[in-house]
């Protein structure tokens, strides 16, 4: 028995061996194949694109200038049966890195050999031709390996002696010189051509301005004629319009006056009705209530008048009664006071000087209190005197003058009373 093997489009499947020692080989890509157990062998090889970067350092050109060139190549194993068989014979069992190394060495060898046959200018200035030449020379050799060169380009070219930069400077100077000359010649030609164009433009402009002026003058004349005619027609139309407008305004005003007259008549009628309504309303709401209120106020006023009269009579009677009672009280008090005074006078007359003296003695404390009343407001009295005998003499003098002061105030002579006389004499 055996197995069914499948393979994608990016791989190739090689089935070798078979029954009875067959040397038949089957190459399949993007499909399937049958392999017998124990007597068939299956191997795979990649058909994907391989990117190579061949590099040749310090390779002398035909002029002996050492250059370093780097290229980029895209290669893959070809799928034609015969070429695929060749590739399988040489690379089957190897990995992609080994295949890349073999193809890279081949490309670098051809690149080195072609560099020795070309000049620096040919290599640097025409890289596409150089890459094409390398591809054409290397293609047969790698093709015999079953490898196809899909593309080959020169990535970089440089040297270590500044040959390329010097070449570029020379070429740049030549190009700059030619460019300056070309610019100067172009500016000269442009100036000449510009002057000629300006002259032609001015000539054409003058002719055009002349024609424009003639056309403008004719246009203005025609426009004036048209404007005059239009103004006349416009004035006539405006006058007719104003006359018609005045007539219409007159009619409208007349209609408005008639409308105002009708409105005024209606307004007068309405106002008359309103006056009647107002009059009735005043009668019902103001006059009748006012008359009722006036009658009520009159009755209240009459009642109040009677009340005030009665109150006044009662007050007068009250005052009269109080006056009579007070008069009786005053009369009784007067009689009592008169009787008291009469009795006191009789007592004074009976006792004579002794009664008067008693009255004076009763009044002396009150007199002394009145005299000493201002001194109650004094907190402290200081007598400024250094002589004790003088203070004593002053006190004795005041006591000696006391009977004279009492006699002047009351008419009673205390010096005639024996007790007072002895006291005052002793004090003196």
From TrEMBL:
It is found in: Membrane; Endosome. Its main location: membrane. GO terms for molecular function: protease binding. Keywords: Endosome, Membrane. It comes from the Eukaryota. SMART domains: PHB (SM00244). One of its GO terms (cellular component) is lamellipodium. CDD domains: SPFH_flotillin (cd03399). The keyword Ubl conjugation does not apply. Residues 87-269 form the Band domain. Pfam families: Band_7, Flot. The keyword Membrane applies. One of its GO terms (biological process) is negative regulation of gene expression. InterPro entries: Band_7, Band_7/SPFH_dom_sf, Flotillin_C, Flotillin_fam. Belongs to the band 7/mec-2 family. Flotillin subfamily. Heterooligomeric complex of flotillin-1 and flotillin-2 and caveolin-1 and caveolin-2. Interacts with ECPAS. PANTHER family: FLOTILLIN-1-RELATED, FLOTILLIN-RELATED. This is Flotillin.
């Amino acid at each position: 028995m055996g197995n069914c093997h499948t393979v994608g489009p990016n791989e190739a499947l090689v089935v070798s061996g078979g029954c009875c020692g067959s040397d038949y080989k089957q190459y399949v890509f993007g499909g399937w194949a049958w392999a017998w157990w124990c007597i068939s062998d299956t191997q795979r090889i990649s058909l994907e694109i391989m990117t190579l970067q061949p590099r040749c350092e310090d390779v002398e050109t035909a002029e002996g200038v050492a250059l370093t060139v780097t290229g980029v190549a895209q290669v893959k194993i070809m799928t034609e049966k015969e070429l695929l068989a060749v590739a399988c014979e040489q690379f089957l069992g190897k990995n992609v890195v080994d295949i890349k190394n073999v193809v890279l060495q081949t490309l670098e060898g051809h690149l080195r050999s072609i560099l020795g046959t070309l000049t620096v200018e040919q290599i640097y200035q025409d890289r596409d031709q150089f890459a094409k030449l390398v591809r054409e020379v290397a293609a047969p050799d790698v093709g015999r390996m079953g490898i196809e060169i899909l593309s080959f380009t020169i990535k970089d070219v440089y040297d270590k002696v500044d040959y390329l930069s010097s070449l570029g400077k020379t070429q740049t100077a030549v190009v700059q010189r030619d460019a300056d000359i070309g610019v100067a010649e172009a500016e000269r030609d442009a100036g000449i051509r510009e002057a000629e164009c300006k002259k032609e433009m001015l000539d054409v402009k003058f002719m055009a301005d002349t024609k424009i002026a003639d056309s403008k003058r004719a246009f203005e004349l025609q426009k004036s004629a048209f404007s005059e005619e239009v103004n006349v027609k416009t004035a006539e139309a405006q006058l007719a319009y104003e006359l018609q407008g005045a007539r219409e305004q007159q009619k409208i005003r007349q209609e408005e006056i008639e409308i105002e007259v009708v409105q005024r008549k209606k307004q007068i009628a309405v106002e008359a009705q309103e006056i009647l309504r107002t009059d009735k309303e005043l009668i019902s709401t103001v006059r009748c209530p006012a008359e009722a209120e006036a009658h009520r106020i009159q009755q209240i006023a009459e009642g109040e008048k009677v009340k005030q009269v009665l109150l006044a009579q009662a007050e007068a009677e009250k005052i009269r009664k109080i006056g009579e009672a007070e008069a009786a009280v005053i009369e009784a008090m007067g009689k009592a006071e008169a009787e008291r005074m009469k009795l006191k006078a009789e007592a004074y007359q009976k006792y004579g000087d002794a009664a008067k003296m008693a009255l004076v003695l009763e009044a002396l404390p009150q007199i002394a209190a009145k005299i000493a009343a201002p001194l109650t407001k004094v907190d402290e009295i200081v007598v400024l005197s250094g002589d004790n005998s003088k203070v004593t003499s002053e006190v004795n003098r005041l006591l000696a003058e006391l009977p004279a002061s009492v006699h002047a105030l009351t008419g009673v002579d205390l010096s005639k009373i024996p007790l007072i006389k002895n006291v005052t004499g002793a004090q003196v």
